[in-house]
Design goal:
The chain has one helix and 16 strands. The longest helix is centred in the C-terminal third of the chain and has 5 residues. It has one domain: Jelly Rolls. The model has no long low-confidence stretch (mean pLDDT 94). It is mostly beta strands and 202 residues long. The strands form two sheets. Strands 1, 2, 5, 7, 8, 9, 10, 11 and 15 form a nine-stranded antiparallel sheet that branches. Strands 3-4-16-6-12-13-14 form a seven-stranded antiparallel sheet. The termini are far apart. The protein is globular and about 40 Å long. Strand 3 and strand 4 form a beta hairpin. It holds the Pfam family DUF1349. This is DUF1349 domain-containing protein. InterPro entries: ConA-like_dom_sf (IPR013320), DUF1349 (IPR009784), UCP022704 (IPR015987).
Length: 202
């Protein structure tokens, strides 16, 4: 199913399980179902990826910044709302507001064959602003408690310039251990260009 959001200059398409995506009055809403996630464990010999999770993704052109305030109806550990970037089946990354495991936390997962897992800082309440930026092969993650001052979270690559330039970007919901949760995304903002300084709060 294709979805058009007035804030974004590119269409979005659904991937994975049905996320019951809807958009009204500037608010995008998605649902994660029971035991839905995307994570490829880096430990042990059993390296099967998680089943999958609802995603709503599109293909922006050139350098960009995509941000949203993410609000999660937490019910279980690791429930999360996510900004997501996808280059290949085993090359993707998540910027999450996650219940990790008993306090809302900004965390990131970068998957290059297998996933890593990194917690950044905790959040009071169930909302935080998240932002993905891209230039060439580089991707940056930022988060903000107020939507004004941004904290640098991570800088990484997922592929070469051509692969990352063709990346799919958008939204994901997850509930790895729970019976599901609802996530809303509002204050959606898309801007061309890369931040002038990743670490100055802008």
């Amino acid at each position: 199913m294709d979805v058009e959001l007035p804030e974004l200059p590119f269409p979005l398409r659904t991937y994975g399980p049905d996320g019951h995506w809807s958009y009204e009055d500037g608010v995008l809403t998605g649902w994660a179902g029971s035991r839905q996630d995307r994570f490829v464990t880096p430990t042990g010999e059993a390296l099967d990826p998680a089943s999958d999770a609802p995603r709503l993704l599109g293909a922006p052109e050139g350098d960009f910044r995509l941000s949203a305030r993410v609000t999660v109806g937490f019910n279980a550990p690791f429930d999360a709302g996510v900004l997501y970037v996808h280059v290949g089946e085993r090359a993707w990354a998540k910027l999450c507001l996650e219940y990790s495991p008993d306090v809302p936390t900004v965390c990131t997962v970068v998957t290059r064959g297998h996933s890593d897992d990194c917690n950044s800082f905790t959040v009071d309440g169930s909302s935080v602003w998240l932002r993905i930026s891209r230039t060439g092969r580089a991707v940056a993650f930022h988060a903000s408690r107020d939507g004004e001052r941004w904290t640098f979270v991570r800088l990484f690559t997922l592929g070469d310039d051509e692969e990352t330039g063709a990346a799919l970007v958008g939204f994901m919901t997850q509930s790895p251990l729970g019976e599901g949760c609802v996530v809303t995304y509002d204050h959606l903002t898309y801007r061309p260009g890369w931040p002038d300084d990743l670490r100055d709060g802008s």
